User: What shape does this take?
Amino acid sequence: QVQLVESGGGLVQAGGSLRLSCGISGRTGGRFALGWFRQTPGKEREFVADIMWNAGDTYYADSVKGRFTICRDIAKNTVYLQMNSLEPEDTGIYYCAARRGIQLVDVLAYAYWGQGTQVTVSS
Assistant: This one.
């Protein structure tokens, strides 16, 4: 079993930055992928970025490429999402998710989810 707890959300002006954290507890051995997703009211949850826990390979949605960076600290069992040059369109609840196996962008592929953290970007 895996538990995920997000933190770091908040209110920021457009052009600003935030760093989200996702603390992980439980078994992280083997092929293990961590992803960030976001959701706004009336829209489906969408993929933002993911990372392979051991290898560190990353993948980003086109909408955040060049602005967001996902990384992990294995010693701290934490995954981060550094968000720069934030835009009002980045507003939403951000979720950390995990799955055993390769990186995938499909929401349904992830078995473990955190409770989410709100990010609001004002114009």
